[in-house]
Specification:
Layout: H1 21-103
Transmembrane segments: 37-70
Keywords: Membrane, Transmembrane, Transmembrane helix
């Protein structure tokens, strides 16, 4: 009976009918390579995210430390300036009161 061979090459159709053991081996090796590449790319993404988080945390810690130092230094400077301003204004006001008292005729 002159029947046709129902087996097809995997390149001919989407319906894969593998005819040779070497095709199976090459497909498995290709899949293994894809898996390795997928794992490698996932590893790269995980490492990149970890590095980005570490850098962000380090920058935040340094920024907070710098802000605390600046706030402490400037806050102390502001307090000193305020003390001087209060002392100077009290001196001026007391001098103004002395001038008023002196200018009152006795």
């Amino acid at each position: 009976m002159g029947g046709t061979d129902r087996r097809k090459d995997s390149r001919e159709s989407d319906n894969v009918c593998i005819t040779d053991v070497s095709d199976i081996k090459s497909d498995l090796l290709f899949c293994k390579e894809l898996d390795n590449m997928a794992y490698a790319s996932i590893g790269v993404v995980v490492v990149a995210v970890a590095v980005a988080v570490a850098v962000a945390v380090a920058v935040a810690v340094v920024a907070v430390d710098v802000a605390v130092v600046i706030r402490t230094v400037y806050f102390q400077d502001i307090l000193v300036l305020m003390q001087h301003a209060i002392i100077n204004s009290v001196r001026e006001f007391s001098g103004f009161l002395v001038d008023i008292v002196v200018s009152i005729p006795s």
